[in-house]
Design goal:
Cobalt-precorrin-4 Transmethylase, domain 1; 3 helices; alpha/beta; six-stranded parallel beta sheet
């Protein structure tokens, strides 16, 4: 099962820094980021160095992931889970519905694929 952590915080930059602080280099990792990229993101790696460890980073448009963005999140998750990473981080632009999103991820088919970890607050 993929260890899955929802990440909440006031800004995209804060959430990305919180994720970067807990990454385990070498461990297969995927990150779903809601919102636009920050030019100073610690999750941007030098693509010219093929030996550098790099997590899979997927950015999706901002919008509540359990409401308006539900389909986009499900498609992204389904594609990602074809070759499941050891750990997955999902960064939320709005923490209002974090409990609803956790509930959705705890239902089939994700209940057999994901192990929900405590929420990471940036």
């Amino acid at each position: 099962m993929t260890a899955t952590t929802l990440v909440i915080g006031p800004t995209a930059a804060a959430r990305e820094h919180a994720i970067a602080a807990v990454l385990s280099p070498g461990r297969p990792t995927a990150i779903i980021l809601e919102g636009l990229a920050d030019g100073n993101s610690p999750l941007v790696y030098d693509e010219s160095d093929p030996a550098a460890w790099q997590p899979q980073v997927h950015r999706i448009a901002p919008g509540c992931l359990c409401c308006a963005g539900n389909l986009v999140l499900r498609v992204t998750l389904n594609r990602l889970l074809r070759r499941p990473p050891a750990q997955l981080f999902i960064s939320l632009a709005d923490a209002t519905h974090v409990d609803r999103l956790r509930a959705m991820l705890a239902e089939a088919p994700y209940d057999a694929l994901l192990r929900l970890e405590p929420v990471l607050t940036a």
